[in-house]
Design a protein that fits this description.
With 208 residues, the chain is mostly helical. It contains 10 helices and no strands. One of its GO terms (molecular function) is DNA binding.
């Protein structure tokens, strides 16, 4: 069980949340390129110095929770029950990724949609998002193999993670492009992952 956060840590989280929400609202209202850091800090009622103590650039704001989400996914794998089937673990992994990316606990649903649209449409953000996704998939594939070394070799683990991630992400993209809310996109991503999982013969072997 994690220790409760102290006053200083809670204040830092509130400040980061205020900056992220202010930035996303401004990005949604007037555009990513058109929004300045000065406008973000004014909306969040903090100084530019405070902004740069949390983020190195506007771009960093869009990926503020990437490392936390990756760490949580890796912990999910590490903490799985000894007798838990790999299919159940993988589905929980997909659900975690979808919930974290579409419905962060400290962000309103409409702001999740803003973030998705920006990362999908702004070339520099799209490129960074793809780099981060690849790195996360690489780490998850390595962790999956280490968790189930007798069931999946490194290539099979990479194939499983790639297939589920690709299916879920594409389904989310199609859903969001149709203008559906994040909750519907989450459902589409989960269903796509289940479909992909059903087609993976490697998961039908033995006890996995």
């Amino acid at each position: 069980m994690s220790e409760p956060l102290g006053l200083r840590e809670r204040k830092k989280l509130r400040t980061r949340r205020a900056l992220v929400e202010a930035a996303l609202r401004l990005f949604g209202e007037q555009g990513y390129q058109e929004t300045t850091i000065a406008e973000i800090t004014a909306a969040a009622d903090v100084s530019a110095r405070t902004f740069f103590s949390y983020f190195g650039s506007k771009e960093d704001v869009l990926f503020f929770d990437h490392q936390e989400r990756t760490d949580e996914a890796l912990k999910l794998l590490a903490d799985r029950r000894p007798d838990e089937p790999i299919r159940d673990v993988l589905l929980r992994l997909v659900e975690h990724g979808l919930r974290a990316s579409l419905l962060p606990a400290d962000m309103a649903s409409e702001l999740s949609s803003v973030r998705y649209r920006l990362v999908s449409s702004v070339p520099a953000l799209r490129a960074r998002g793809l780099r981060l996704l690849f790195e996360t998939e690489r780490r998850l594939a390595a962790a999956l193999h280490e968790t189930y070394p007798g069931e999946l070799d490194r290539t099979e683990a990479a194939a499983v993670i790639g297939a589920l991630s690709g299916a879920a992400n594409l389904a989310v993209q199609v859903s969001m492009d149709r203008g559906e809310p994040p909750e519907r996109a989450w459902e589409a991503g989960r269903r796509a992952a289940e479909i992909a999982m059903g087609g993976l013969a490697v998961l039908g072997r033995g006890t996995v």
